[in-house]
């Protein structure tokens, strides 16, 4: 666990977040979304959220 790093999200994380999340959209029922997200979609969600709530990445 030496590489454990929990940190606040930055816009540069959006591409990786979209890639990970899209896997769940395509292959599970954990999300109600049906359409894969583009990097810009995730960037928009980050921008809308981080002003009011923490968004952490691992």
Q: How much of the polypeptide forms β-strand, as a percent range?
A: 5-15%
Low-pLDDT runs of 5+ residues are none
Secondary structure tally: strands: 2
Order of strands across the widest beta sheet? Answer: 1-2
| Tally of helical runs | 2
Helical percent range? 40-55%
Total domains:
1
- Describe the main β-sheet briefly: 2 strands, antiparallel
Alpha carbon gyration radius: 12 Å
Order of helices and strands: EHHE
Can you give the mean pLDDT? 94
N-C termini distance: 12 Å
- Which class of secondary structure composition applies to the elements? mainly alpha
Shape annotation: globular
Describe what is shown at a glance.
Helices cover 43% and strands 7% of the residues.
Task: Describe the model.
The protein has 58 residues and is mainly α. The protein has one domain (7-52). The chain contains 2 helices and 2 strands; from the N terminus they run βααβ. It has helices at 14-27, 39-49, and strands at residues 7-8, 56-57. It has a two-stranded antiparallel ribbon. Helix 1 crosses helix 2 (39-49). The relative contact order is 0.27. The model has no long low-confidence stretch (mean pLDDT 94).
